[in-house]
Amino acid sequence: METLRERKKQRTREALLRTALELFTTQGYEHTTVDDIAAAVDVSQRTFFRYFAGKEEAALALQDMTVAHFLEAVRERPRHEAPMAALRQAVLEGWDTINEVIQAVVPVELYLRMYQVIESTPVLLAAHLRRSAEIEEAIARILAEREGVDLDTDPRPRLAVAVFGGVMRLTERQWSTGEDFSVDAMRALTVSYLEQVGPALSESWRTR
Hints:
By secondary structure, the protein is mainly alpha-helical. The protein is built from 12 helices and no strands. It has helices spanning 4-27, 34-41, 45-51, 55-59, 61-76, 83-96, 98-102, 108-120, 122-147, 156-176, 183-195, 197-202. Helix 6 (83-96) packs parallel to helix 10 (156-176) and helix 8 packs across helix 9 (122-147).
């Protein structure tokens, strides 16, 4: 059972995270300092560093939460599903249940606005892409395990994840530069692009 001390620590972490994201999305990541965040929550800088290694970790914390949710969803997909189908269903279910993961900490709208901050902030985008490479390796390992293949000798798990990761990266980029920043718009783009993978890779693009 969670103790009073643990609940207090969790509330402090969530307050710091929510405040950091609000400042990042209103005044910009590079114009926000750790001192700004700590002062807004009425805690010391030292307290901030008890919960986050730095601004970057706070900025990407919600992405880490949704990634963990997605990885668990991939693990739980039925064994009879083909790998790409399992990835597709896991990511779509992730968008369908995002309120359950995010809403307890921050409004979903704030989470979505952070996508735009990440895309427009070089240091955050670089960190996001670096983490994406690590996540793709984790997904490949999950696929290899569920399909009963050796990741070191069978290229198919990494190949499937490379295609899937490319689609998701394209989706993020297109969504963040569009006019509709809703969850529904992100989900619709995801569906659209994933459905085009087969034709894009196996059919001619020329039209008569």
